[in-house]
Write a structure and sequence with these properties.
alpha+beta, four-stranded antiparallel beta sheet, three-stranded antiparallel beta sheet, 5 helices, 7 strands, globular
Amino acid sequence: METYTEPKKLVKNIGYQEQKQQMLAGLTDGMIDAPIIGLIKTINRLPYCFTLQCCYGHFTYNSQNNTHNLEPLPRTEKIERVEYRIAYIAFCIEHSAWGRSLIAALNKITHFDPEYIQLCSAEWFWERQVNSYALQVEPDRFKHQDRVILDYDEALHVETTRNQFFDHLRELFLNLLESSGYR
């Protein structure tokens, strides 16, 4: 699946609040990878954004073939190739000053490892929900794909970047909740 297109500009969306309520009404913890449940709940507390879809990012290799594996990569010399399923969070962002500020803050997250973190729009998200954006952890050369085969050393780097990425997002959204009085 192609996941990346350049981020689009926010457009007016008079149905934003209703769309947010509908999306969140159908969201359950069971739909979210366990390591990021708290983060997704934090994000969805802000009035000017909500999550559309997310994935913690999964690694399969050798005899570990669970495509929803949440375990860290083992430190070993016995793994040569790793299939990586992209880590990302897709957001819908309100057309407002707060929304524009959030997009700028999300773009700053990419600066932590610009060769492995991208802010984008995905055409298929935008067609269903205007003002949708995604932050993804993926080697830049594969940014258009949702899963790739990596050599073991690069997979370790992606895992480290993914973990830092989610840590930065937690900090960002907790700070946004606090500064906007929604904590």
